[in-house]
Amino acid sequence: MFGKGLLQGLGITFKRMVGPNITEFYPEEKPNLPTRVRSSMGLERDKCISCNMCAMACPNSVIKLTSEKNEANKKVLKTYHMDVGRCLFCGMCAEVCPTKALKVTQEFENAIYEPEDMQWDMIKRAERKGKVE
Amino acid sequence: MSIEKTEELILNMGPQHPSMHGLFRMVVHLAGETVTNIEPKIGYLHRGMEKLAESRTYSQFIPYTDRLDYLASPHNNWAYVQTVEKLMGVEIPERAEYLRVIFGELARIASHQVCIASTALDMAGWSAWSYAFRDRERICDMYEMTAGSRLTVNIMRIGGMSAEPPEEFWPALQSFLDDTPEMLEEYYGIFFGNEIAMGRLKNVGILTKEMAENLSITGPVLRASGVDYDVRKAEPYSIYDRFDFDVPVRTGCDSYDRTIIRMDEIVESIKIIKQAVRDIPGGPIMAKVPKVIKPPVGEVYHRVENPKGELGFYIVSDGTTKPTRLRIRPATFINLQMLPIVAKGWKIQDVVAIFATLDAVLGEVDK
Predict the structure, then answer these.
(1) Which of A94, B248, B302, B344 could form a disulfide with B83 if both were Cys (CB 3.0 to 4.6 A apart)?
(2) Which option is the CATH number for A32-129: 3.30.70.3270, 3.40.50.11440, 3.40.50.970, 3.40.50.410?
(3) Cβ(B343)–Cβ(B35) under 8 Å?
(4) pLDDT value of position B24
(5) B152 contacts in A (CB within 8 Å)?
């Protein structure tokens, strides 16, 4: 019978219409993302040993860091800069980090207004975050 | 009465067009509403992947492969890392092989769901689109909890997998597998069994067996033309020789069969995942590979069965940390060449149907 398939399809949509909602009300309700989600990067300055592994693992030369030697002749991180406009968010930098100083974080609301906001000073960002919390 | 010929109409479809899957432009030559010729224009998404590979180390290129066929990124990772492993002669742990199969087949299901959804959407079936995408979200959730990303997954590494799936992955996978018969029933009821969809797709865009073979078509498009060819069976890679599954073949050669064959493939993928989940051993997920990857001097070609066809990587190594040359054999780029040949003589709305059933992903076409 012609039209049987159409009615069957309508039956399915009707069944789903009275069923439970599966959509999320995003801006009102924040999603609870798994801890492995690579939405943003976070640095713990004290843990960093300035080994430069992250910069070498990066496919796009996003990371630039400088260090200086302290009195005990140990390397201490001085600046840590990320050019996130070039970042693929592949997470390779966090994966190679031997001390887990660099981590992927779940802050996904990264929209910005100005191109220069894509230059992240990771040390300042970490300090700012510490103040907010 | 003699029929006067009108001037040929040239219609420009794309690159931004609702029925263009990505940035694809075709210049359609029309006589009335009948297509006389199609000139595909590609390259809007060209990023120079092959050249980029020459300036990246072997490990650094893995995230780029995600961006080829972005609807099935684990498959691209898989093809690439297996090529490098073949060049280096690395044996990877059993558990990693099983995990690769599970994620590869999940990617196949997700990719086919997008194909079904977008074909429905191109046939103006809005609700059918949302059903397939709803279920694909569950696969994306599984990617997300394991690798940390939903689309560009970057889950495989040279020598194994990037991460062990978390505890909540296995129940999520099991419930997905349990729900698939109902999902497929719904897709059939809402789209494939619909008379309008059948009218738009059946006997439209005939790609005969001879044409398909002569044009080097691969993947579901080839199998819908009655050719039993699948790299997983023809040249088993990874551990596909251990699984019991069939290669679905249809003989309709039309747009309808090219779409519905993907439903059959989902059923087979479910079968493979069930066997993999049953047999998966414990153990490590990474082989012992050096931190700095330096394959020996030589060249290698390796191919896998991507959801869209045969995906191959050809690498020439000069013994340094970066490849001298990397060539990608994309499935849809080669499948796309059937479009001007098959679409000739059909009406303009049929061109949309033929292009949709090709399931072209422009990330892979333009590289």
Answers:
(1) B302
(2) 3.30.70.3270
(3) yes
(4) 85
(5) 88-90
